[in-house]
Amino acid sequence: MKFASSRSSPLVAVISVVISFEFVSAQAQNASNHGAALYKTKCAMCHGLDGAGKTPVGQKVSVRDLRPPEVQKQSDSDLADVIGQGKGKMPAFGKILSDDQIKLLVAHIRELERSSSSKR
Question: For the chain, which domains are there?
């Protein structure tokens, strides 16, 4: 019995690692989807789905394109502060969104830059 047990141990370890990886990947994908959904409901009206700000509302109030380096080089904390506290004509979302939701939005804003640079 010991022989069979010691042989299955590496297999069990490999299976555990694979299952753990799949779980973490699924959680990351879920967070990404949740960030995209939040962005769509809270930000896209002005900034557009692609972050360019080329929406009727965005153009009317001159919102910033979220994809260029000058926005993307800001720290996560700086972006979170703008989302939470507002800036210029942008309203503050800190009272209606949790810190975790704001972090999801910041992560999604980072993805906008990656998406636009892959299309260039």
Answer: 2-119 (1.10.760.10)
pTM for the full predicted model: 0.71
Contacts of 102 (CB under 8 A, 6+ apart): 80, 83, 84, 93, 94
For residue 10, the model assigns a pLDDT of 66
DSSP letters for the chain: -HHHHHHHHHHHHHHHHHHHHHHHHHHHHHHHHHHHHHHHHHTHHHH-TTSS--SHHHHHTTPPPSSSHHHHTS-HHHHHHHHHH-BTTBPP-TTTS-HHHHHHHHHHHHHHHHHHHHH-
